[in-house]
Amino acid sequence: MPTIGVKRDLLFKALGKKYTDDEFQELCFAFGLELDEVTTEKQMLTKEQGDVAAAANASEEVIYRIDIPANRYDLLCLEGLVTGLLVFQGKLKPPKFDFVEPVARQVLKVDASTAQIRPYAVAAVLHNVTFTQESYNSFIDLQDKLHQNICRKRTLVAIGTHDLDTIKGPFSYEALVPDQIKFIPLNQTQTLNGTQLMDFYATHAQLKQYLPIIRDSPVYPVIYDSRRVVLSLPPIINGDHSKISLNTRNVFIECTATDLTKAKVVLDTIVCLFSEHCQQKFTVEPCDVVLSDGTVVSYPELAVREEYISAKRANAYIGIDETPDKLANMLTRMYLEANVDAANGDLLCVKIPPTRHDVIHACDIYEDIAIAFGYNKIKKSLPAFMQIAKQFPLNKLTEQLREQVAQAGFTEALTFTLCSRDDIARKLNKSIEAMPAVHIGNPKTLEFQVVRTTLLPGLLKTLVANRKMPLPLKLFEISDVVIADEDTEVGARNERRLCAVNCNKTAGFEVVHGLLDRVMQLLEVPWKSGDAPKGYYLQATEDPSYFPGRCAKIKYNDVVIGKIGVLHPTILQAFELTTPCSVVEITIEPFV
């Protein structure tokens, strides 16, 4: 859930009313938002960055930090938040966005080469904009919020904004070899080519995270004007030549993307929220995007679509009893202009504006009705039919075993589900390539690279952290591991396991063997001897993680359900342990 910070005094000025902190918190709650924190710039710098020197010069102006639902892109800046609240309070009618046709439209030509890296582009122009310092900051901050949210850190969409009066159309969107692209990046003084730019920003606090998106590509995307002036190198940085400022009057907005739908949403959001600052409010100049096949598409779309919902059904779903007229009024307050259908008094015609791309189904409209009505006002009621809940059988068995294993003298541990590749492979004398492991696509740390395929590494790490405790150390865990499985719908499956470790001056194989016998006794599984049709038994095996001759498979009805044995000394050394350990690990799912 994104959080925006707005200056309290600026917010109250735009709303036309001053509130106490409690009053504004109640307003936010009624609108479906949450006032997360009341702070100052100075406190934020001290708390979040620990920058005491910067905090000393920071403002003491009160800042409201407000949590915004992840799908409400229209509320990610002061302009959108103020408009939404004013419409909700009935002080403002939902704005209607319109096109203003210029003498000649700006044109963005998309070259076929861009298909190799970022194939889509959209564009628009905000004409006769008047920026103040606050609105300029809000404009930049909105782009950053969108980049982090719907744009998925610029992987799906990258936004570029330019001073139109400093550049000349038509514009071209191309993909070139890095060394052929030369320009002065934003707020820099020296000319860099694509390769040099990657090295230059490799240590940049903000931009270094975006470099991998295109760094290894043979070509980089770039946008030129008609004089071959570089506007931007998406998704990394804009050119310094066309940077916007407080004096900018005409803003050219371009979005390059790997997802065209997301690009349209982002463009609609930006132009709708900031067309408020145009001389002719809520108007946008369209641009023509010429595709590589010659097709011309006009952006932004600013589409307003109509949805019809049943007032009776809406009342039934929410648990209220309101007239269609009142429901229509509630929706209008939520920025969804609605009217009762003249031919059918039960139908509501709801207009979805281009700012509300989060409304994709009738249930989204019902949710807005519930918010406008007030969740706290909805009367509690019993379901129309009885439901009897019961515990999931696997979880019930897990809880029962936890209690019994603890009574057997073992201490329960709860370890991380994610671990490093070394933990499940190299440290266990195995190859990661042979492991059915699920790998994390973009791990943040080396400690969390894969999902564990065994509970053993977590318990051994816990032993290391508690090695100063008196021996013996007997730990157990009953949790899920994740196994890669191509036969499943998602390519992986969870498996509930029990793992126990005995760490003492001697390996104590009989301790974990005794625990296994106790668990099987509780599960009413007999020891299989002779020609018995069912039961469990041990079968000698070799495993690189265990001492030679001290490892066995655990079989239940002739199916392997786990292993038991004494850990190999190299495993102990890899996990920085100095005392022998014996281990038992089984899956408990066959016993449910």
UniProtKB/TrEMBL annotation:
**CDD domains from the UniProt entry:** PheRS_beta_core
Q: Name one GO cellular component term.
A: phenylalanine-tRNA ligase complex
Compartments annotated for it: namely: Cytoplasm
Reading the lineage from the top rank, the first entry is: Eukaryota
What Enzyme Commission number does this protein have? 6.1.1.20
**Which reaction equations make up its catalytic activity?**
tRNA(Phe) + L-phenylalanine + ATP = L-phenylalanyl-tRNA(Phe) + AMP + diphosphate + H(+)
* Protein keywords: Aminoacyl-tRNA synthetase, ATP-binding, Cytoplasm, Ligase, Magnesium, Metal-binding, Nucleotide-binding, Protein biosynthesis
| Single annotated GO MF | phenylalanine-tRNA ligase activity
Q: Does the keyword Aminoacyl-tRNA synthetase apply?
A: yes
Question: Where do the B5 domain residues begin and end?
Answer: 302-380
Classification via Pfam families: B3_4 (PF03483), B5 (PF03484), PhetRS_B1 (PF18262), tRNA_synthFbeta (PF17759)
Q: Which family does it belong to?
A: Belongs to the phenylalanyl-tRNA synthetase beta subunit family. Type 2 subfamily.
The record's section on PANTHER family has:
PHENYLALANINE--TRNA LIGASE BETA SUBUNIT, PHENYLALANYL-TRNA SYNTHETASE BETA CHAIN AND LEUCINE-RICH REPEAT-CONTAINING PROTEIN 47
Q: What is this protein called?
A: Phenylalanine--tRNA ligase beta subunit
Report the source organism: Drosophila lebanonensis
Instruction: Name the gene behind this protein.
Output: LOC115625051
